[in-house]
Amino acid sequence: MVDGQTLPWILSEILQATGGELVCGDQMQGFENIGIDSRGISPRDMFVAIVGDVHDGHMFANDVVQQGVGGLIVNREKIADLPIAEWQAQQIACVAVADTTRALGDLAAFHRSRTDVPVAAITGSNGKTTTRQMTAQVVAQKYNTLATISNYNNQIGVPLTLLRLTREYEQAVVELGTNSPGEIARLAQICAPDIGVITNIGPAHLEGLGSLDGVMREKEQLIKHLKAGGKAVLNADDRRVYQMASRTDRDVLLFGLSKNAGIRASAVNEKTSGISFSLHLPNERLTVDLSVPGHFMVLNALAAAAVGNLLKVPAQEIKAGLEAFQPAWGRMDIFQTENGIHIIDDTYNANPESMKAAITTLRTLRRNSRSLFVAGDMLELGAQTEALHKQVGAWAAAANIDKLLINGEFANAVVAGAINAKMKHADIFTGTRDELLDTLKQTLKPGDWVLIKGSRGARMDTVVKGLKSWAGIKQD
Fold it and tell me: What counts of helices (H) and strands (E) characterise the chain?
Protein backbone atom coordinates (compact mmCIF):
# COMPACT_ATOMS: atom_id res chain seq x y z
CA MET A 1 0.00 0.00 0.00
CA VAL A 2 1.12 3.56 -0.66
CA ASP A 3 1.79 5.10 2.76
CA GLY A 4 1.27 8.78 1.98
CA GLN A 5 5.01 9.38 1.84
CA THR A 6 5.69 7.19 -1.21
CA LEU A 7 5.19 8.77 -4.62
CA PRO A 8 3.32 6.28 -6.81
CA TRP A 9 3.69 6.00 -10.57
CA ILE A 10 1.23 5.95 -13.41
CA LEU A 11 2.12 4.40 -16.73
CA SER A 12 1.99 7.71 -18.59
CA GLU A 13 4.75 9.05 -16.27
CA ILE A 14 6.88 5.98 -16.95
CA LEU A 15 6.47 6.55 -20.68
CA GLN A 16 7.34 10.23 -20.23
CA ALA A 17 10.42 9.46 -18.14
CA THR A 18 11.84 6.75 -20.40
CA GLY A 19 10.63 7.86 -23.82
CA GLY A 20 9.51 4.26 -24.22
CA GLU A 21 6.89 2.74 -26.51
CA LEU A 22 3.62 1.45 -25.04
CA VAL A 23 3.34 -2.13 -26.32
CA CYS A 24 0.24 -2.92 -24.29
CA GLY A 25 -1.55 -1.62 -21.21
CA ASP A 26 -3.56 1.34 -19.95
CA GLN A 27 -1.70 4.64 -19.64
CA MET A 28 -3.57 5.39 -16.40
CA GLN A 29 -2.50 2.12 -14.78
CA GLY A 30 -0.80 2.73 -11.43
CA PHE A 31 2.29 1.27 -9.76
CA GLU A 32 3.76 1.75 -6.30
CA ASN A 33 7.46 1.24 -7.02
CA ILE A 34 10.05 0.31 -9.64
CA GLY A 35 11.86 -3.01 -9.16
CA ILE A 36 14.50 -5.13 -10.88
CA ASP A 37 14.74 -8.23 -8.64
CA SER A 38 12.26 -10.91 -9.67
CA ARG A 39 12.71 -12.61 -6.29
CA GLY A 40 11.47 -9.66 -4.26
CA ILE A 41 9.14 -7.89 -6.65
CA SER A 42 5.71 -6.78 -5.37
CA PRO A 43 2.54 -7.23 -7.43
CA ARG A 44 2.10 -3.44 -7.39
CA ASP A 45 5.59 -2.77 -8.80
CA MET A 46 6.75 -2.10 -12.35
CA PHE A 47 9.46 -4.66 -13.23
CA VAL A 48 12.48 -3.46 -15.24
CA ALA A 49 14.19 -6.35 -17.07
CA ILE A 50 17.87 -5.45 -16.65
CA VAL A 51 20.48 -7.22 -18.76
CA GLY A 52 23.33 -7.85 -16.32
CA ASP A 53 26.75 -9.49 -16.49
CA VAL A 54 25.35 -12.77 -15.17
CA HIS A 55 21.56 -12.73 -15.56
CA ASP A 56 19.17 -11.29 -18.12
CA GLY A 57 16.01 -10.01 -16.45
CA HIS A 58 13.99 -10.88 -19.55
CA MET A 59 14.43 -14.55 -18.60
CA PHE A 60 12.30 -13.88 -15.52
CA ALA A 61 9.54 -11.90 -17.24
CA ASN A 62 7.00 -14.72 -17.07
CA ASP A 63 7.93 -15.42 -13.45
CA VAL A 64 7.08 -11.89 -12.34
CA VAL A 65 3.82 -11.94 -14.30
CA GLN A 66 2.87 -15.17 -12.53
CA GLN A 67 3.69 -13.44 -9.23
CA GLY A 68 1.05 -10.84 -10.09
CA VAL A 69 3.19 -7.99 -11.38
CA GLY A 70 1.10 -5.73 -13.60
CA GLY A 71 3.78 -4.09 -15.73
CA LEU A 72 7.20 -4.61 -17.29
CA ILE A 73 9.82 -2.50 -19.06
CA VAL A 74 11.77 -4.53 -21.61
CA ASN A 75 14.36 -4.04 -24.31
CA ARG A 76 12.78 -3.43 -27.70
CA GLU A 77 14.91 -6.14 -29.29
CA LYS A 78 13.44 -8.75 -26.91
CA ILE A 79 9.79 -8.11 -27.80
CA ALA A 80 9.63 -10.91 -30.35
CA ASP A 81 10.64 -13.44 -27.68
CA LEU A 82 7.97 -12.39 -25.17
CA PRO A 83 4.29 -13.48 -24.92
CA ILE A 84 2.90 -10.02 -25.63
CA ALA A 85 -0.52 -11.29 -26.78
CA GLU A 86 -0.97 -13.19 -23.51
CA TRP A 87 0.05 -10.13 -21.49
CA GLN A 88 -2.38 -7.97 -23.43
CA ALA A 89 -5.19 -10.43 -22.67
CA GLN A 90 -4.22 -10.33 -18.98
CA GLN A 91 -4.12 -6.50 -19.04
CA ILE A 92 -0.39 -6.51 -18.27
CA ALA A 93 1.36 -3.25 -19.18
CA CYS A 94 4.52 -3.49 -21.27
CA VAL A 95 6.86 -0.65 -22.23
CA ALA A 96 9.62 -1.18 -24.78
CA VAL A 97 12.85 0.83 -24.60
CA ALA A 98 16.20 0.76 -26.36
CA ASP A 99 18.12 -0.04 -23.16
CA THR A 100 16.51 -1.04 -19.86
CA THR A 101 19.53 0.01 -17.78
CA ARG A 102 19.34 3.49 -19.24
CA ALA A 103 15.57 3.49 -18.70
CA LEU A 104 16.15 2.67 -15.02
CA GLY A 105 18.38 5.74 -14.79
CA ASP A 106 15.80 7.86 -16.60
CA LEU A 107 13.14 6.77 -14.12
CA ALA A 108 15.43 7.64 -11.21
CA ALA A 109 16.18 11.07 -12.68
CA PHE A 110 12.46 11.72 -13.12
CA HIS A 111 11.77 10.59 -9.57
CA ARG A 112 14.62 12.67 -8.13
CA SER A 113 13.22 15.77 -9.85
CA ARG A 114 9.69 15.27 -8.56
CA THR A 115 10.81 14.72 -4.95
CA ASP A 116 13.26 17.64 -5.17
CA VAL A 117 15.26 16.32 -2.19
CA PRO A 118 18.73 17.94 -2.12
CA VAL A 119 21.48 15.49 -3.11
CA ALA A 120 25.15 15.35 -2.12
CA ALA A 121 27.16 13.10 -4.46
CA ILE A 122 30.61 11.73 -3.65
CA THR A 123 33.26 10.30 -5.94
CA GLY A 124 37.02 9.77 -5.94
CA SER A 125 39.65 7.11 -6.45
CA ASN A 126 39.92 6.23 -2.76
CA GLY A 127 37.78 6.73 0.29
CA LYS A 128 34.48 7.48 -1.44
CA THR A 129 32.57 4.73 0.38
CA THR A 130 33.95 5.71 3.80
CA THR A 131 33.37 9.39 3.01
CA ARG A 132 29.81 8.63 1.92
CA GLN A 133 29.17 6.73 5.16
CA MET A 134 30.70 9.49 7.28
CA THR A 135 28.78 12.15 5.38
CA ALA A 136 25.50 10.32 5.84
CA GLN A 137 26.21 10.04 9.58
CA VAL A 138 26.93 13.77 9.80
CA VAL A 139 23.95 14.90 7.72
CA ALA A 140 21.60 12.53 9.54
CA GLN A 141 22.33 14.37 12.79
CA LYS A 142 20.05 17.14 11.52
CA TYR A 143 18.08 15.77 8.56
CA ASN A 144 16.17 12.63 7.66
CA THR A 145 18.75 11.28 5.21
CA LEU A 146 18.65 8.70 2.44
CA ALA A 147 22.06 7.21 1.66
CA THR A 148 23.58 4.71 -0.73
CA ILE A 149 23.58 1.23 0.74
CA SER A 150 26.27 -1.41 0.23
CA ASN A 151 28.20 -0.72 -2.98
CA TYR A 152 25.25 0.68 -4.97
CA ASN A 153 27.37 3.22 -6.85
CA ASN A 154 26.95 2.30 -10.53
CA GLN A 155 24.35 2.75 -13.27
CA ILE A 156 22.06 0.28 -11.56
CA GLY A 157 22.85 0.99 -7.90
CA VAL A 158 22.56 4.79 -8.03
CA PRO A 159 19.09 4.69 -9.67
CA LEU A 160 17.91 2.08 -7.16
CA THR A 161 19.03 4.36 -4.33
CA LEU A 162 17.25 7.41 -5.75
CA LEU A 163 14.09 5.42 -6.42
CA ARG A 164 13.85 4.91 -2.63
CA LEU A 165 13.27 8.64 -2.14
CA THR A 166 9.98 9.47 -0.46
CA ARG A 167 8.43 12.66 0.89
CA GLU A 168 9.83 11.93 4.36
CA TYR A 169 13.47 12.45 3.29
CA GLU A 170 15.10 15.85 3.67
CA GLN A 171 18.56 15.05 2.23
CA ALA A 172 20.22 12.34 0.16
CA VAL A 173 23.87 11.24 0.09
CA VAL A 174 24.95 9.08 -2.84
CA GLU A 175 28.20 7.53 -3.99
CA LEU A 176 29.25 7.54 -7.66
CA GLY A 177 31.69 4.95 -9.00
CA THR A 178 33.22 4.46 -12.41
CA ASN A 179 35.60 2.23 -14.34
CA SER A 180 35.13 3.67 -17.83
CA PRO A 181 34.72 7.12 -19.41
CA GLY A 182 31.27 8.67 -19.32
CA GLU A 183 29.90 6.89 -16.26
CA ILE A 184 30.28 9.78 -13.80
CA ALA A 185 28.63 12.18 -16.27
CA ARG A 186 25.69 9.80 -16.66
CA LEU A 187 25.33 9.23 -12.91
CA ALA A 188 25.55 12.96 -12.24
CA GLN A 189 22.85 13.59 -14.83
CA ILE A 190 20.66 11.08 -13.02
CA CYS A 191 21.15 12.42 -9.49
CA ALA A 192 21.49 16.15 -10.36
CA PRO A 193 23.64 16.89 -7.28
CA ASP A 194 23.40 20.07 -5.22
CA ILE A 195 26.78 19.27 -3.66
CA GLY A 196 29.60 17.37 -5.38
CA VAL A 197 32.51 15.92 -3.40
CA ILE A 198 35.76 14.66 -4.93
CA THR A 199 37.97 12.88 -2.41
CA ASN A 200 41.13 12.38 -4.51
CA ILE A 201 42.56 11.28 -7.85
CA GLY A 202 44.68 8.13 -7.92
CA PRO A 203 45.68 5.19 -10.14
CA ALA A 204 42.41 3.25 -9.97
CA HIS A 205 40.56 1.67 -12.92
CA LEU A 206 43.39 2.62 -15.27
CA GLU A 207 42.39 -0.23 -17.57
CA GLY A 208 39.26 1.73 -18.48
CA LEU A 209 40.34 5.31 -17.79
CA GLY A 210 43.86 5.09 -19.23
CA SER A 211 45.89 7.44 -17.04
CA LEU A 212 45.75 9.68 -13.99
CA ASP A 213 44.66 12.53 -16.25
CA GLY A 214 41.93 10.25 -17.59
CA VAL A 215 40.81 9.53 -14.03
CA MET A 216 40.81 13.27 -13.31
CA ARG A 217 38.72 14.09 -16.39
CA GLU A 218 36.22 11.39 -15.47
CA LYS A 219 35.83 12.45 -11.82
CA GLU A 220 35.62 16.14 -12.74
CA GLN A 221 32.40 15.41 -14.62
CA LEU A 222 30.67 15.43 -11.25
CA ILE A 223 31.51 19.12 -10.80
CA LYS A 224 30.55 19.93 -14.37
CA HIS A 225 27.10 18.41 -13.85
CA LEU A 226 26.22 20.08 -10.57
CA LYS A 227 22.83 21.77 -10.49
CA ALA A 228 22.73 25.52 -11.00
CA GLY A 229 23.84 27.05 -7.73
CA GLY A 230 25.49 23.78 -6.70
CA LYS A 231 28.64 23.66 -4.58
CA ALA A 232 31.87 21.72 -5.06
CA VAL A 233 33.72 20.19 -2.10
CA LEU A 234 37.32 19.56 -3.18
CA ASN A 235 40.47 18.13 -1.61
CA ALA A 236 43.01 20.93 -1.24
CA ASP A 237 45.79 18.40 -0.58
CA ASP A 238 45.38 16.59 -3.91
CA ARG A 239 47.02 18.50 -6.76
CA ARG A 240 44.66 17.33 -9.49
CA VAL A 241 41.54 17.87 -7.41
CA TYR A 242 42.74 21.28 -6.24
CA GLN A 243 43.19 22.35 -9.88
CA MET A 244 39.48 21.76 -10.47
CA ALA A 245 38.68 24.72 -8.22
CA SER A 246 40.07 27.12 -10.83
CA ARG A 247 38.14 25.42 -13.66
CA THR A 248 34.63 25.72 -12.28
CA ASP A 249 32.26 28.62 -11.85
CA ARG A 250 30.54 26.84 -8.97
CA ASP A 251 31.19 27.86 -5.38
CA VAL A 252 34.04 25.76 -3.95
CA LEU A 253 34.72 24.67 -0.37
CA LEU A 254 38.18 23.17 0.13
CA PHE A 255 39.04 20.57 2.75
CA GLY A 256 42.40 19.18 3.81
CA LEU A 257 45.43 19.74 5.98
CA SER A 258 46.52 22.69 3.86
CA LYS A 259 46.28 26.15 5.37
CA ASN A 260 44.16 27.33 2.42
CA ALA A 261 41.44 24.75 3.18
CA GLY A 262 38.19 26.14 4.56
CA ILE A 263 37.61 22.90 6.48
CA ARG A 264 40.91 21.60 7.82
CA ALA A 265 42.58 19.50 10.50
CA SER A 266 45.55 19.98 12.78
CA ALA A 267 47.09 18.13 15.74
CA VAL A 268 46.50 14.72 14.14
CA ASN A 269 47.23 11.92 16.62
CA GLU A 270 47.16 8.28 15.51
CA LYS A 271 46.35 5.68 18.15
CA THR A 272 45.74 1.93 18.16
CA SER A 273 42.05 2.53 18.81
CA GLY A 274 41.63 5.21 16.17
CA ILE A 275 42.75 8.73 15.33
CA SER A 276 42.04 12.17 16.78
CA PHE A 277 42.45 15.64 15.34
CA SER A 278 41.42 19.25 15.77
CA LEU A 279 38.65 20.09 13.30
CA HIS A 280 38.78 23.69 12.05
CA LEU A 281 35.40 24.92 10.82
CA PRO A 282 34.94 28.50 9.55
CA ASN A 283 33.85 29.78 12.97
CA GLU A 284 34.71 26.97 15.38
CA ARG A 285 37.42 24.54 16.38
CA LEU A 286 36.82 21.26 18.19
CA THR A 287 38.44 17.89 18.81
CA VAL A 288 37.21 14.82 16.93
CA ASP A 289 38.01 11.25 18.00
CA LEU A 290 37.49 8.73 15.22
CA SER A 291 37.13 5.07 16.17
CA VAL A 292 38.98 3.94 13.03
CA PRO A 293 42.75 4.05 12.38
CA GLY A 294 44.63 5.54 9.47
CA HIS A 295 45.87 9.03 8.71
CA PHE A 296 43.89 8.95 5.46
CA MET A 297 40.67 8.72 7.49
CA VAL A 298 41.14 12.35 8.51
CA LEU A 299 40.63 13.55 4.93
CA ASN A 300 37.49 11.43 4.61
CA ALA A 301 36.19 13.01 7.82
CA LEU A 302 37.03 16.52 6.61
CA ALA A 303 35.09 15.97 3.40
CA ALA A 304 32.09 14.81 5.43
CA ALA A 305 32.45 17.79 7.76
CA ALA A 306 32.54 20.13 4.75
CA VAL A 307 29.21 18.78 3.50
CA GLY A 308 27.77 19.11 6.99
CA ASN A 309 28.99 22.70 7.16
CA LEU A 310 27.39 23.56 3.81
CA LEU A 311 24.12 22.06 5.03
CA LYS A 312 24.31 24.08 8.26
CA VAL A 313 24.71 21.07 10.53
CA PRO A 314 25.86 22.48 13.92
CA ALA A 315 29.52 21.87 14.82
CA GLN A 316 28.73 19.57 17.75
CA GLU A 317 26.46 17.49 15.53
CA ILE A 318 29.20 17.24 12.88
CA LYS A 319 31.51 15.95 15.63
CA ALA A 320 28.86 13.50 16.86
CA GLY A 321 28.27 12.17 13.36
CA LEU A 322 31.97 11.61 12.71
CA GLU A 323 32.55 9.95 16.05
CA ALA A 324 29.57 7.61 15.49
CA PHE A 325 31.11 6.26 12.28
CA GLN A 326 31.97 2.56 12.20
CA PRO A 327 33.72 1.02 9.18
CA ALA A 328 31.92 -1.37 6.88
CA TRP A 329 33.30 -4.88 6.62
CA GLY A 330 36.61 -5.14 4.85
CA ARG A 331 37.60 -1.50 5.36
CA MET A 332 40.32 -1.17 7.99
CA ASP A 333 38.26 -3.36 10.29
CA ILE A 334 40.47 -4.51 13.20
CA PHE A 335 39.98 -7.69 15.22
CA GLN A 336 42.06 -8.96 18.12
CA THR A 337 42.48 -12.62 19.06
CA GLU A 338 42.54 -13.84 22.65
CA ASN A 339 46.33 -14.09 22.58
CA GLY A 340 46.77 -10.54 21.26
CA ILE A 341 47.18 -11.00 17.51
CA HIS A 342 45.70 -8.04 15.63
CA ILE A 343 44.00 -8.73 12.28
CA ILE A 344 43.35 -5.77 9.96
CA ASP A 345 40.71 -6.66 7.38
CA ASP A 346 41.00 -4.23 4.45
CA THR A 347 39.91 -6.69 1.79
CA TYR A 348 36.93 -4.85 0.32
CA ASN A 349 38.99 -3.42 -2.52
CA ALA A 350 42.44 -2.17 -3.45
CA ASN A 351 44.34 0.14 -5.75
CA PRO A 352 47.89 1.48 -5.43
CA GLU A 353 47.04 4.50 -3.29
CA SER A 354 44.87 2.54 -0.88
CA MET A 355 47.59 -0.14 -0.67
CA LYS A 356 50.15 2.51 0.25
CA ALA A 357 47.82 4.05 2.84
CA ALA A 358 47.08 0.65 4.40
CA ILE A 359 50.81 -0.22 4.62
CA THR A 360 51.49 3.15 6.25
CA THR A 361 48.72 2.52 8.77
CA LEU A 362 50.11 -0.94 9.57
CA ARG A 363 53.54 0.57 10.19
CA THR A 364 52.00 3.11 12.59
CA LEU A 365 49.76 0.71 14.47
CA ARG A 366 52.28 -2.05 15.05
CA ARG A 367 54.65 0.27 16.95
CA ASN A 368 57.35 -2.10 18.22
CA SER A 369 55.48 -5.29 17.36
CA ARG A 370 56.03 -7.61 14.41
CA SER A 371 54.03 -6.92 11.25
CA LEU A 372 52.86 -9.16 8.41
CA PHE A 373 51.28 -8.05 5.14
CA VAL A 374 49.10 -10.44 3.13
CA ALA A 375 48.58 -8.99 -0.34
CA GLY A 376 46.36 -10.00 -3.24
CA ASP A 377 46.16 -8.65 -6.78
CA MET A 378 45.03 -5.13 -7.64
CA LEU A 379 42.72 -5.30 -10.65
CA GLU A 380 41.81 -3.04 -13.59
CA LEU A 381 45.19 -1.27 -13.78
CA GLY A 382 45.82 -1.87 -17.46
CA ALA A 383 49.30 -1.49 -18.91
CA GLN A 384 50.72 -0.25 -15.59
CA THR A 385 49.69 -3.36 -13.68
CA GLU A 386 53.13 -4.93 -13.26
CA ALA A 387 54.90 -1.67 -12.40
CA LEU A 388 52.28 -0.75 -9.81
CA HIS A 389 52.48 -4.19 -8.17
CA LYS A 390 56.26 -3.75 -7.95
CA GLN A 391 55.59 -0.50 -6.09
CA VAL A 392 53.52 -2.37 -3.52
CA GLY A 393 56.48 -4.64 -2.81
CA ALA A 394 58.78 -1.65 -2.51
CA TRP A 395 56.40 0.11 -0.10
CA ALA A 396 56.21 -3.02 2.07
CA ALA A 397 60.01 -3.20 2.24
CA ALA A 398 60.34 0.51 2.99
CA ALA A 399 57.82 0.16 5.84
CA ASN A 400 59.99 -2.58 7.38
CA ILE A 401 57.22 -5.17 7.15
CA ASP A 402 58.56 -8.32 8.79
CA LYS A 403 56.79 -10.87 6.62
CA LEU A 404 55.23 -10.42 3.16
CA LEU A 405 52.76 -13.07 1.96
CA ILE A 406 51.45 -12.71 -1.60
CA ASN A 407 48.77 -14.37 -3.71
CA GLY A 408 47.70 -13.74 -7.27
CA GLU A 409 48.66 -13.45 -10.90
CA PHE A 410 50.99 -10.53 -10.17
CA ALA A 411 52.63 -11.95 -7.04
CA ASN A 412 56.02 -12.15 -8.77
CA ALA A 413 55.93 -8.42 -9.51
CA VAL A 414 55.30 -7.67 -5.81
CA VAL A 415 58.19 -9.98 -4.91
CA ALA A 416 60.49 -8.23 -7.40
CA GLY A 417 59.62 -4.83 -5.94
CA ALA A 418 60.28 -6.01 -2.40
CA ILE A 419 63.58 -7.68 -3.30
CA ASN A 420 64.77 -4.61 -5.21
CA ALA A 421 64.01 -2.58 -2.07
CA LYS A 422 66.26 -4.91 -0.02
CA MET A 423 63.67 -7.12 1.64
CA LYS A 424 65.05 -10.57 2.42
CA HIS A 425 63.91 -13.55 0.34
CA ALA A 426 63.35 -15.51 3.54
CA ASP A 427 60.69 -13.02 4.65
CA ILE A 428 58.61 -13.37 1.46
CA PHE A 429 56.14 -16.17 0.72
CA THR A 430 53.91 -16.70 -2.32
CA GLY A 431 51.15 -19.24 -2.75
CA THR A 432 47.45 -19.93 -2.98
CA ARG A 433 45.10 -18.29 -0.49
CA ASP A 434 44.89 -21.59 1.41
CA GLU A 435 48.69 -21.84 1.51
CA LEU A 436 48.94 -18.27 2.79
CA LEU A 437 46.42 -19.09 5.51
CA ASP A 438 48.34 -22.20 6.55
CA THR A 439 51.58 -20.20 6.67
CA LEU A 440 49.94 -17.55 8.84
CA LYS A 441 48.67 -20.16 11.28
CA GLN A 442 52.21 -21.50 11.65
CA THR A 443 53.88 -18.07 11.75
CA LEU A 444 51.71 -15.73 13.83
CA LYS A 445 52.76 -15.00 17.41
CA PRO A 446 51.07 -13.09 20.25
CA GLY A 447 51.32 -9.35 19.67
CA ASP A 448 51.67 -9.60 15.88
CA TRP A 449 49.83 -7.25 13.51
CA VAL A 450 48.65 -8.73 10.21
CA LEU A 451 47.12 -6.71 7.36
CA ILE A 452 45.14 -8.49 4.61
CA LYS A 453 44.31 -6.52 1.47
CA GLY A 454 43.53 -6.96 -2.23
CA SER A 455 40.97 -6.07 -4.86
CA ARG A 456 37.50 -7.48 -4.36
CA GLY A 457 38.01 -9.97 -7.17
CA ALA A 458 41.16 -11.29 -5.47
CA ARG A 459 38.96 -12.81 -2.72
CA MET A 460 41.40 -12.09 0.09
CA ASP A 461 38.41 -11.99 2.44
CA THR A 462 38.62 -15.79 2.46
CA VAL A 463 41.97 -15.47 4.25
CA VAL A 464 40.37 -13.21 6.84
CA LYS A 465 37.52 -15.67 7.38
CA GLY A 466 40.01 -18.50 7.76
CA LEU A 467 42.05 -16.55 10.30
CA LYS A 468 38.96 -15.64 12.31
CA SER A 469 37.84 -19.26 12.35
CA TRP A 470 41.30 -20.38 13.48
CA ALA A 471 41.35 -17.71 16.20
CA GLY A 472 37.80 -18.45 17.37
CA ILE A 473 36.49 -14.97 16.47
CA LYS A 474 32.73 -14.89 15.96
CA GLN A 475 31.73 -14.15 12.36
CA ASP A 476 28.47 -12.74 11.00
Answer: 17, 22
Burial 105-128 (b: 16+ CB within 10 A, else e): bbbbbbbbeebebbbbbbbbbbbb
| 412-427 pLDDT, tens digit each | 999 999 999 999 999 9
Distance CA 28, CA 33 (A): 15
Q: Residue 53: is its pLDDT beyond 90?
A: no
pTM over 0.85: yes
Query: Could you tell me the residue range of the domain that residue 429 belongs to?
Result: 333-471
Instruction: Give the distance, in angstroms, between the CA of residue 69 and the centroid of all CA atoms in the same chain.
Output: 32
Q: Are residues 317 and 193 in the same domain?
A: yes
CATH number for position 349? 3.90.190.20
CA dihedral defined by 443, 446, 449, 450, rounded to 10 degrees?
A: 40
Q: Which of 39, 42, 82 is nearest to 58 (CA)?
A: 82
The neighbouring-strand residues paired with 289 are: 276
pLDDT band at 147 (very low <50, low <70, confident <90, very high): very high
Give dist(CA 382, CA 142) in Å, integer: 43
Nearest Cα residue to 57 out of 47, 42, 43 = 47
248 shares a domain with 138: yes
**224-274: per-residue pLDDT in tens?**
999 999 999 999 999 999 999 999 999 999 999 999 999 999 999 988 778
